[in-house]
Sequence to fold (146 residues):
Amino acid sequence: MKTRNFLIFLLGFLGVGAIGGGSLLIISPSGKLLGTPLSILETSPFNDFLIPGILLFFVIGVAPLVLILALIKKPISVLAEYFNCFKDMHWSWSYTVYIGFALIIWIQVQEVLINDVHWLHSFYMLWALLILFATQLPQLKKRYKK
Fold:
């Protein structure tokens, strides 16, 4: 139970933070509400922060919060199972692994597109590794094994 609560905390912190940041970028695509200048997007394909804000809000924000419910209730979902690469595990566990890798990809792409590294990048890279580490704890794997 403690390991699941740890994973839920990791996902909750990630989701709430990403929904907050994504919301601010959607509301103000100029980045002013976050104090982020548009000039950092000069080497990226984006003119403003709207699309990154939407991706941040849904992929890194909403998805982890939905996964918290799925980890607690372990619902059956034919669609979710279809995309489950770990057929011996419940899909909620598998999708938590996906979120860990999605966060790593998000941070790496962000660093490449803005051509810079901020301390928050390192923080969230470590957070992603914590999520991936937590999913591999024997107690959690046993809990979500089919």
Observations:
- The two ends are 17 Å apart (CA to CA).
- The chain is about 70% helix and 0% strand.
- The chain has a mean pLDDT of 96.
